[in-house]
User: Fold these one by one.
Assistant:
Number 1:
Amino acid sequence: GAVVSQHPSWVICKSGTSVKIECRSLDFQATTMFWYRQFPKQSLMLMATSNEGSKATYEQGVEKDKFLINHASLTLSTLTVTSAHPEDSSFYICSARSRGPNTGELFFGEGSRLTVL
Amino acid sequence: GEDVEQSLFLSVREGDSSVINCTYTDSSSTYLYWYKQEPGAGLQLLTYIFSNMDMKQDQRLTVLLNKKDKHLSLRIADTQTGDSAIYFCAEAQRNTPLVFGKGTRLSVIA
């Protein structure tokens, strides 16, 4: 099946630094990628929808200046957590939908666990 | 907005069948999904069903959809200890992001 790769899987950073997480569709083109955040023992919260070549659409309550999303190509989207703080520590998961009007499958990356000290 | 509800916990004995239930509110949902999440890992797509279907079977997994009641279920036959995980139900229309339930934690007792 289709593969979505996230990198890094784990990252620990100091408060105030910025962290970039990459999401790649390895064997298909993804016109749309979604970024989710998951708190411990909770469900996934949609942060933003990323469309190739255009600005991301952020969900209510998600700071777009804090969580910068770039979807530069049909196979890559990046999430940059700027000036990270401990409350940004979380599990971030991306998903990608392949091109084509009839596909319903959404493929998820393995997630990136961010710990901010 | 759309809402997806699941029971939070389910405990079954090894070898028994597990049935995880889910209800959703969006009548225009086109796709309904079941994902599995093991500790510390991302989401693994188990199966999905189109809203114009009422059943889908894939090896040990059977998905039943009652569109009238907006009720989705996942049955795992011959449940094994490796099936212990959190199972998320999700719904979406064709080009919208998924809306997830809170997940059902399945514990399999040996």
Number 2:
Amino acid sequence: DIVMTQSPSSLAVSAGETVTINCKSSQSLLSSGNQKNYLAWYQQKPGQSPKLLIYLASTRESGVPDRFIGSGSGTDFTLTISSVQAEDLADYYCQQHYSYPTFGAGTKLELK
Amino acid sequence: EVKLQQSGDELVRPGASVKMSCKASGYTFTDYAMHWVKQSPGQGLEWIGTIIPLIDTTSYNQKFKGKATLTADKSSNTAYMELSRLTSEDSAVYYCASERRVPHVMDAWGQGASVTVSS
């Protein structure tokens, strides 16, 4: 199995700040065939189901605000949220979709 | 609009089985895989397995082989998951999620179904 390691586990922010969440995979998620990275990001607000934000490392799902930016390649990936808003307070999970899915342990975004 | 409507919360006895459902609407059910994901209390997400309704093909996380059984009814656009020989470790929220974009990416999720295993 591909192990996904997220950091930090929690993050306290003020509205308007830019935050970065990191995700590292135990093996490369870069396909040699199409040069795409198979990494997704999900947001889960309290009491709600997860919601897809980004897939293929940087492709934003329809309707996701452009302040959510996915980047990275190979084994190291980042989710950047620019100008954090109160509605962004949630848990964030990375997931590799290179093979059978595995998730990171999550990052809790809280208000400072 | 894509919607995945899951069955209700369950309270079950240790050693029993439970079968939950996930009714899909707003897309062609048979064209896309359906995943099931476990979230234990206060914990992260764990992939259980996937079913491709068109060909009734299933794939399981090794950890859940023998625990979970995935099926699908094409006539009612409904996916099912049965969990057997329940223990307290199976108490969790279970989600179904569709895969319509890229393999293994879960683009729409059900509301979740809580299973509590208690005597």
